[in-house]
Amino acid sequence: MVKHQPLQVYERQLCLSCITGLYGCRWKRYQRSHDDTTKWELLWSFILLFTFCLLLVWFYFWWEAHNDYNEFNWLLYNRSGEWSDGTVPILATTAAGVIYVAFLMILALCHIALGQQLNLHWLHKIGVVAALLTTVVGVISVNQTWEQEWEIVPISLQATGPFLHIGALAAVTALSWIVAGQVARAEKPVFQVVVMLLYLSVLLGLYVVPLYITSPCIMDPSTLKPRPEVIGQRGAPMIAPENTIWSFQRSLQMNVTGLETNVKISADGVPFLMHDFDLRRTTDVEKVFPERRTLNASSFNWTDLQQLNAGEWFLKDDPFWTVPSLSPSERRRIANQSVCSLEELLKLASITNSSVVFRLQRPPPDHPHHHSWINDTLTVVQQSGIPQRLVMWTTDEQRAEVRRQAPGLIQTSLVKCSLQSLQQSDVSRMLLRYNQVSTNEVRNFSQSHIDLTLYTVNDPWLYSVLWCSGVSAVSSEAPQVLKKVPYPSWLMRPNEYCLMWVSADLISFAVIVGIFVLQKYRMSGMRSYNPEQIMLSASVRTASRDVNVMKEKLIFSEVGSEMGADEEPYMDGYNYYSNQSIRQ
């Protein structure tokens, strides 16, 4: 007679298999383990955590840098000579890296919560290292080419700090479930103390960090100053080709109060509008004058400049991804744009009673008007018929002579100066990049009757922060966006903010205490694993620990009538038998 021994049938655990399989390619039950994680795998866990944190910072940097994407593309253009949106590959790789590493982090936390041994698969290790190295290279590259953009991070935290604090507090509160479970299961008191100290240190830091969060948007709404004026920088370059009449007309349709541009002097002494050194990016000079395409724009006379088309490049390159939204009539009008002169701009501003601010660039030494550039430009301003009170003069050279000939011009500085220096120079306005002045400096200048115009402000969050800071005007490449901001994105009284973060801290503390109590109660009621379950690694720390995770079905047959019922072996649900054969 052959006696068949018990066949063990296990309960399927698809969720656990997916977690361990996706993280460490351990799809089979026998591959899983509840043993302590090895030191090597702990090291990889710390590398994963560090990569995740670095990617979050990198992702946040590029989120807040959205305001200056055009500036970044301009830096790339100066290096390569070809215009392209360099932010697209960076954003794509950053988003992919954040999603991938965040997914691995979630799987790792699930391993810890379920008491599974961490064992990151070697392919994931390669992926994590690739994400880490790519991010480090990106950070180093930004430090070398765009270092000033890091100064924007503190400014952005003035808009996002209170909300990031709430989000971080919610995340750390949720982690208390895992921390409490680890502390309750741990057998070594030292481990429990270390884990608790680390967790409480992070938690306490989050509880008190609002004391160090400052934002101009935390203020009494009754003290909010009027909405800052918006000046169209090179018109409305996101929806029309920059420095063309159509671009300035479009910006005026967006309710701007002023127009900003760059002015060069042609070879025959005509001031015209052009931002770049040469004409390749914004005209068809390569088609009309191919042999002169790399020359300084000031080397062309006005007759040559009028032959160039200044709109077709916009339809072809679509630098801001806005061309598909244009109507057929707008596209036809854009296709017929030409290089604009300063006189045309001033006449348009005079008709619409809009202010004008321009940066005058001196021609090279071999230029026919290298010495007369100030007088040539001033003559055009005076002959255009625009009221002098609408023109902001930014050139420092011969400022005294300009003030004598045109005393009504608004003297404007492009360099940050002390109040004493501004008063001595009779300068009443400054045009600065938005990261060059703090909130306190804005208020000090305002009290001294020095108006500030800050550039380049394209995003509503930045416009809101500067509005709350008391800035009088901003220069923007996206007036169509700022037109839709009738009020700061958020505004909160100091007592309301205090109530918000204190309430959040108290709720978080109550939830954490409840979770620790619940975890301790759960763990105290759980029975320990028996040797069979440990050896087979067939159990999971489920919510009750009393659920059987291994079921045995006894399969046996009687081959002869001589075997009685009393000879039938009794099989307990948790007994373990090794296979054997008994022959008679």
Automatic annotation (TrEMBL):
Domain GP-PDE positions: 228-486
Gene Ontology terms: biological process: lipid metabolic process; positive regulation of neuron differentiation
GO cellular component term of the entry, any: plasma membrane
Bilayer topology term: Multi-pass membrane protein
PROSITE patterns, alphabetized: GP_PDE (PS51704), PROKAR_LIPOPROTEIN (PS51257)
Matching Gene3D superfamilies: Phosphatidylinositol (PI) phosphodiesterase
Main location: membrane
UniProt-annotated location(s): Membrane
Recorded superkingdom: Eukaryota
GO molecular function, one term: glycerophosphodiester phosphodiesterase activity
SUPFAM superfamilies for the chain: PLC-like phosphodiesterases
Membrane-crossing residue ranges in chain numbering: 42-63, 90-114, 126-143, 163-181, 193-213, 499-518
Keywords, alphabetical: Glycoprotein, Hydrolase, Membrane, Transmembrane, Transmembrane helix
Annotated PANTHER family: GLYCEROPHOSPHODIESTER PHOSPHODIESTERASE DOMAIN-CONTAINING PROTEIN 5, GLYCEROPHOSPHORYL DIESTER PHOSPHODIESTERASE
Family membership: Belongs to the glycerophosphoryl diester phosphodiesterase family.
Stated name of the protein: Glycerophosphodiester phosphodiesterase domain containing 5b
Annotated source species: Oryzias melastigma (Marine medaka)
